[in-house]
């Protein structure tokens, strides 16, 4: 449901952009003053671009401020200090993904030290769940986007391929917490997985060919069978309040 | 395996025959009127013993009554099995009509034959037999093989469908029928509102047996499957509880019911359902604990699973809790721990025996559902009642599913799609549970029992046969998203894990306590407490999913490799054995100790270290007379393969022991070493295919190094010729140097020894072996000394878990990837040439 509301909201927002601030945020804006209006406006803008609802954005903004300590930007240390993350074996990669410019819908590569709320939201938007109204093409696009996110997480040097070294690193860290698997085994597993990719995508590889690494196309190809539509989403808070807001809008 | 299954088999068998005396045992062809069971027993006791005393010692006597009951049970099982055999043989038929429907039809025919012979209904599905001896193993099997993560991930939705959906079905059907009755649609029937509700409750539940039988064949996507499957499993429990509550109400009678009784009924509903579930969990934990300490009685450890599972069922029944829910949750909760705790063989035994039982009783149930139809007594026709029931069941199921899904979709992260909802509502198959409950009805309280049985049977036939047949086309026509048929590949498994961690992390970052967060917390709790208490220490290690997939894939690869080798009539690694044999012959006089040690485990094969050294010698020999001897040698290797590799099997000692599986150590060794050898070869082969192993930089470096090393070993020509011409995977000088270059500091005794022995690669060396024979040849010496740490003695490894022993070769191969990559490339090419159309996974080794 959340998305349908978002969609309605977006369409609505586009058509009534001019008078919007006066209507929806009207009372609040009048009471809280101009700065409030500006942030409302900014949020609306972000909502259009990320597909989140205003409520979700507000919530995430609150969280962002909490993490950053009321700063404009957030740094890696801020994220690393989240206690719940301490047990996550691939913490580093995930935090890295937040600071990866490729995940922020920009055409740049490399990573930055600090990200603002907008970038934060962009990264988060990869995990929005689909809704009943999402069409097949949109789903396909979402899937691609998510795969791209995953791919970027593995491809640490931004060269468009996941080399064995890069892959091994992720696998090692991934398996490091389980305690049961030694480093050597993790390596072997990474190798075997890589071999899988190689043999699937380049079935007739000559003896002198080196499989350079997994390109995004290969990555997509090999994960074709993986169920992603029902995974890789998280529930963003205030689904219900957005629905209510939606009602307010349309009424 | 058979012996392992013996205990539960015996158990079930014994109970089956005691029970069947009541139901099936009444079959008496020859007697004009069937006597009651006790008199029958007495009579054959007299016949059996009394008569023989009189006439002296008969050579043979015919004592049918002595064996009648167990005999009939066995024959019925056989008949059901044969029916399945015949049905499954016609593959094109089962493509269209589901097996369950065919079995029911087979039951019709069989019932007709019996009717023709006896003119009376002698066999039918008896509720006692059904609920005590046929149903539990099916439910236990489904619980045991439940995909836990999926199940608990969708538990909320499943519970909503199972509880609210079932209550809705029961209530709406009962009330509507009653309303129609009041409206006069059915004529004269002696059924009150409560009886209608009772009827509604018994027929409300979707039947797991029927549903699985149909859905198994249509491979719908996993979420849809788990929703239908989980619902059918849990709502069986719910429907039995509802049935009991209404049954109590009916006994109480209309006037006796007041608000207090109704509230008590509702409370009892929850107590029975949740009590049963918790009892099952308790038994599941008990099984897990027990299997933790059964390593000394491996033979009977599978039996614990069955016996305790069955006890969970019976205990719940005794406490009048929901027995179906109990055994379900017993299976669900114990599966993970028993799979980890028990020996691999025992786990396989449990799996197989469980399937044997479940599949067997499923077959019997369907056949008997068909047979039960052939009975004049139960066919009471009432057009209004029967048609309206069919109609209402169908309609209310659809309404219920759509309404509940609509509510659920407001809260579900990933909504259930419209098409899936259609399939869900269409998949409301009723089955044997409904019939069993109908047969349980008390005739003194419910006058129209036969009508209800008849209607239930019709509903079952209608849903199982008609809906079952149309399900497949419907799924196709609606383009329901199907499950991917292929197994998970390793990389998918890894990405799965990445997903999980990533979702948790994102939830953490966004500061929300969601589904993933909860699951993560549960996993941590389980890791910390449950596993420590319930799992063996050793088992805790090798439980990683990724590793299991890895392990399985490796085994598969090894098998492919062997198959390919055998197809081509030569196994490279066997060629090592030729060389090896030669040595043995040469040294046999001078070195009794070594050869003794060798031949000892040579029956099996040789240890890692040795295997990797000897080739260098053998290869050179091959190279010299490659062309001429090649064919001869292939024959030889075949011969040797039979002679040596499988020798253990020939020497199999036929020893009988009830408490131990006849583990012939020799054979075990053969297999293990065989696998290890395969593993080793395979790894080298794999990395050849990969070429990925290291960034190019290093491989270039290795090449350079190789050139530099030339004067050190043999001529470049030689090594090149080898690389290009031979398709063997053996190490060459080039390998060794490549190894040294890329490895640098790898402290590998095996490799060092190999380098030391590099000198032998000179072909001229081989004829001159004799002077060396006085001493221990360096490579053998090394093998004795250094081979040990690399590969501990086979016997020592026997005790190790198989996973661990597997790691040894892995470690080596992981290090040596790049060097292998160089040498094995030609081989890889040849392979590829030979197999131009490789399969998805096995491409490199087919």
Looking at how many chains there are and whether they match, the oligomeric state comes to heterodimer
Report the uncertain regions of chain B: 1-52, 573-629, 640-652, 663-667, 689-846
Q: Main beta sheet of chain A: strand number and arrangement?
A: 2 strands, antiparallel
Number of strands of chain B: 0
Number of DSSP helical runs of chain B: 37
Mean pLDDT of chain A: 67
Distance between the termini of chain B: 32 Å
State the end-to-end CA separation of chain A. 18 Å
Largest sheet of chain B: none
Strand proportion of chain B, as a percent range, falls in under 5%
Using only CA atoms, what is the Rg of chain B?
34 Å
Structural notes for this entry:
- The complex is a heterodimer of chains A (251) and B (846).
- By secondary structure, chain A is mostly helical.
- Chain A has 13 helices and 4 strands.
- Helix content of chain A is 60%, strand content 4%.
- In chain A, helix 1 (2-15) runs parallel beside helix 13, helix 7 (91-98) crosses helix 9 (136-154) and helix 10 crosses helix 11.
- The two termini of chain A are 18 Å apart.
- Chain B has helices spanning 2-23, 37-55, 64-89, 91-96, 99-118, 127-144, 148-153, 155-182, 193-203, 208-218, 222-252, 259-292, 301-318, 323-341, 344-371, 383-411, 418-426, 432-440, 449-477, 490-509, 515-534, 537-541, 545-567, 572-587, 592-602, 608-624, 626-645, 647-650, 665-690, 696-709, 716-725, 733-743, 749-756, 769-773, 778-790, 794-798, 802-834.
- The longest helix of chain B is centred in the first third of the chain and has 34 residues, at 259-292.
- The chains are: A mainly alpha (251), B mainly alpha (846).
- The interface between A and B is large, with 77 and 81 residues.
């Amino acid at each position: 449901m959340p998305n349908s509301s978002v969609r309605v909201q977006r369409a609505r927002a586009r058509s009534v952009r001019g008078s919007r601030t006066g209507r929806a945020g009207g009372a609040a804006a009048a009471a809280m003053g101009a700065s409030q209006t500006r942030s409302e406006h900014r949020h609306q803008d972000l909502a259009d671009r990320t597909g989140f609802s205003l409520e979700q954005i507000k919530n995430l903004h609150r969280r962002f401020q909490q993490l950053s300590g009321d700063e404009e930007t957030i740094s890696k240390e801020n994220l690393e200090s989240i206690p719940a993350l301490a047990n996550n074996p691939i913490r580093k990669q995930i935090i890295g993904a937040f600071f990866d410019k490729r995940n922020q819908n920009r055409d740049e590569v490399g990573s930055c030290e600090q990200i603002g709320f907008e970038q934060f939201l962009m990264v988060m938007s990869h995990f929005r769940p689909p809704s009943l109204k999402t069409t097949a093409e949109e789903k396909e696009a979402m899937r691609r986007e998510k795969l791209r996110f995953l791919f970027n997480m593995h491809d640490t040097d931004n060269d468009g391929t996941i080399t064995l070294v890069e892959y091994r690193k992720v696998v090692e860290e991934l398996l490091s917490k389980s305690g049961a698997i030694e480093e050597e085994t993790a390596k072997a597993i990474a190798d075997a997985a890589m071999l899988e990719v190689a043999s699937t995508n380049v079935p007739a590889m000559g003896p002198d060919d080196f499989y350079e690494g997994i390109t995004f196309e290969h990555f997509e190809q090999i994960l074709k069978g993986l169920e992603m539509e029902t995974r890789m989403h998280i529930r963003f808070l205030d689904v219900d309040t957005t629905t209510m807001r939606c009602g307010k809008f349309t009424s | 395996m058979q012996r392992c299954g013996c205990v539960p088999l015996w158990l079930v068998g014994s109970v089956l025959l005691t029970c069947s005396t009541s139901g099936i045992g009444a079959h008496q062809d020859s007697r004009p009127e069937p006597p009651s069971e006790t008199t029958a027993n007495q009579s054959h006791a007299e016949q059996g013993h009394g008569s023989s005393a009189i006439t002296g010692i008969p050579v043979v006597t015919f004592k049918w009554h002595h064996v009648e009951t167990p005999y009939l049970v066995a024959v019925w099982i056989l008949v059901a099995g044969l029916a399945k055999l015949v049905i499954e043989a016609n593959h094109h038929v089962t493509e269209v009509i589901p097996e369950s429907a065919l079995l029911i039809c087979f039951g019709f025919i069989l019932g007709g034959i019996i009717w023709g012979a006896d003119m009376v209904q002698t066999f039918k599905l008896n509720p006692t037999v059904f609920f005590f001896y046929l149903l539990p193993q099916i439910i236990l099997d489904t619980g045991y093989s439940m995909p836990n993560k999926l199940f608990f991930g969708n538990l909320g939705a499943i519970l909503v469908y199972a509880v609210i959906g079932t209550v809705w079905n029961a209530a709406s059907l009962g009330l509507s029928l009653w309303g129609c009755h009041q409206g006069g649609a059915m004529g004269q029937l002696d059924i009150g509102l409560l009886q209608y509700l009772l009827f509604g409750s018994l027929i409300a539940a979707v039947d797991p047996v029927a549903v699985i039988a149909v859905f198994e064949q249509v491979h719908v996507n996993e979420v849809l499957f788990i929703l239908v499957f989980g619902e059918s499993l849990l709502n069986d429990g719910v429907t039995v509880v509802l049935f009991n509550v209404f049954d109590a109400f009916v006994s109480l009678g209309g006037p006796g019911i007041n608000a207090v009784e109704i509230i008590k009924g509702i409370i009892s509903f929850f107590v029975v359902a949740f009590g049963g579930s918790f009892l099952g969990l308790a038994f599941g934990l008990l099984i897990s604990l027990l299997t933790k300490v059964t390593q000394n009685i491996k033979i009977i450890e599978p039996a614990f699973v069955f016996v305790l599972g069955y006890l969970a069922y019976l205990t719940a029944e005794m406490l009048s809790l929901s027995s179906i829910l109990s055994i379900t949750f017993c299976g669900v909760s114990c599966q993970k721990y028993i799979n980890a705790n028990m020996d691999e063989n025992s786990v396989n035994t449990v799996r197989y025996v469980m399937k044997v039982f479940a599949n067997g009783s499923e077959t019997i149930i369907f056949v008997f559902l068909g047979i039960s139809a052939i009975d004049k007594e139960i066919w009471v026709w009432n057009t209004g009642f029967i048609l309206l029931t069919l109609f209402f069941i169908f309609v209310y199921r659809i309404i219920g599913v759509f309404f509940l899904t609509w509510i659920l979709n407001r809260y579900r992260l990933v909504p259930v799609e419209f098409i899936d909802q259609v399939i869900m509502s269409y998949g409301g198959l009723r089955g044997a549970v409904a019939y069993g409950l109908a047969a349980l009805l008390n005739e003194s309280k419910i006058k129209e029992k036969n009508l209800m049985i008849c209607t239930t049977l019709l509903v079952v036939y209608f849903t199982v046969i008609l809906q079952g047949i149309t399900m497949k086309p419907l799924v196709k026509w609606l383009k329901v998203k199907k499950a991917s048929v292929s197994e998970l590949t390793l990389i998918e498994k890894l990405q799965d894990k990445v997903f999980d961690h990533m979702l948790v992390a994102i939830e953490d970052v966004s500061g929300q306590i969601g589904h993933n967060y909860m699951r993560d917390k549960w996993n941590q709790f389980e890791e910390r407490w449950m596993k420590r208490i319930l799992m063996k220490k050793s088992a805790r290690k090798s439980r990683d999913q990724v590793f299991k997939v890895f392990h399985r894939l490796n085994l598969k690869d090894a098998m492919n490799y062997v198959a390919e080798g055998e197809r081509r009539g030569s196994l490279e690694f066997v060629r090592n054995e030729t060389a090896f044999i030669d040595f043995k012959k040469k040294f046999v006089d001078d070195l009794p100790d070594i050869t003794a040690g060798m031949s000892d485990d040579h029956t099996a094969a040789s240890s890692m270290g040795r295997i990797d050294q000897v080739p260098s010698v053998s290869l050179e020999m091959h190279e010299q007379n490659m062309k001429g001897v090649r064919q001869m040698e292939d024959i030889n290797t075949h011969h040797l393969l039979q002679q040596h590799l499988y020798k253990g099997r020939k020497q199999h000692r036929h020893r009988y022991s009830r408490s131990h599986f006849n583990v012939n150590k020799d054979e075990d060794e053969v297999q293990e070493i065989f696998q290890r050898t395969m593993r080793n070869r395979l790894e080298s082969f794999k990395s050849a295919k990969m070429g990925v192993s290291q960034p190019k930089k290093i491989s270039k470096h290795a090449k350079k190094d190789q050139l530099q090393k030339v004067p050190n070993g043999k001529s470049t020509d030689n090594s090149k010729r080898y690389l290009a011409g031979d398709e063997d995977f053996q190490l060459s000088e080039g390998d060794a140097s490549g190894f040294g270059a890329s490895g640098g500091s790898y402290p590998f005794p095996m490799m060092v020894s190999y380098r030391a022995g590099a000198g032998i690669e000179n072909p001229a060396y081989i004829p001159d072996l004799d002077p060396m024979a006085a001493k221990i040849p360096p490579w053998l010496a090394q093998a004795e000394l250094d081979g040990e740490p690399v590969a501990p003695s086979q016997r020592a490894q026997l005790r190790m878990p198989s996973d661990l022993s597997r790691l040894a070769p892995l470690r080596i191969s992981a290090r040596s990837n790049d060097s292998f990559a160089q040498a094995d490339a030609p081989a890889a090419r040849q392979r590829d040439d030979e197999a131009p159309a490789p399969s998805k996974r096995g491409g490199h080794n087919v």
